[in-house]
Amino acid sequence: MSAAHPGPTPDEVARRSTEEMLRGDAAGRALGLEHLDVGPGRAEVAMVVRPDMVNGWDICHGGLIATLADTAFAVACNAGGEVTVAAGFDISFLEPGRLGDRLVARCREVSRRGRSGIYDVTVVREADGDGDGVVIAEFRGRSRSTGRPNPALAEG
Questions:
Q1: What pLDDT is recorded for position 2?
Q2: Mean pLDDT for the chain?
Q3: pLDDT at 78
Q4: Could you report the per-residue pLDDT of 50-91, keeping only the tens digit for each?
Q5: 18 near 42, Cβ under 8 Å?
Q6: Residues 110, 120: contact at Cβ < 8 Å?
């Protein structure tokens, strides 16, 4: 790139990469996921627990909390502009999410070497209104880059 056109900033790469990746995310739309923040190696995504998200014990289904955390992980590990996929993850549930709770997943990059990365996500019950800011779950994701650039970055 020339001095007149230095190319996108890291934050712009993160935003454009996220928009492209989420364009086809029907699951995220169905769950009402809200994308709050993205930047190099970080992301924040929220979800309100609806009646169709609770299990037989009247708490948020763990798979849906994992989906929320996995989405924040996906956004963060794709923010660098390369198509990146999950190689695996582990999640520990610490407290239940309940009907009406707004859960926020905050992801940060721990390490990235070559094509592999490690990311941590903390899911909290939002600390405003009736929320108490309590940690609901801790998630650790392992990523693997495909080595292909995100198509949004080729569009200029």
A1: 47
A2: 91
A3: 92
A4: 999 999 999 999 999 999 999 999 999 999 889 999 999 999
A5: no
A6: yes
- Where are the alpha helices (H) located in 43-127, listed in sequence order? 62-78
Q: What is the largest CA-CA distance in the chain?
A: 60
**61-65 LR contacts (CB < 8 Å, sep 24+):** 62/91, 62/93, 64/31, 65/91, 65/93, 65/97, 65/103, 65/123, 65/136, 65/137
Strand partners, 109: 119
**13 membership: H or E segment, kind and range:** helix 10-22
pLDDT tens across 5-60, in order? Answer: 678 898 998 998 889 888 889 999 999 999 999 999 999 999 999 999 999 999 99
Domains detected in the chain: 10-154 (3.10.129.10)
Whether residue 94 is predicted with pLDDT greater than 90 in this model: the reply is yes
Question: Averaged over 132-138, what is the pLDDT?
Answer: 92
Q: Are 69 and 91 in contact (CB under 8 A)?
A: yes
Interatomic CA distance for residues 20 and 142, integer angstroms: 21
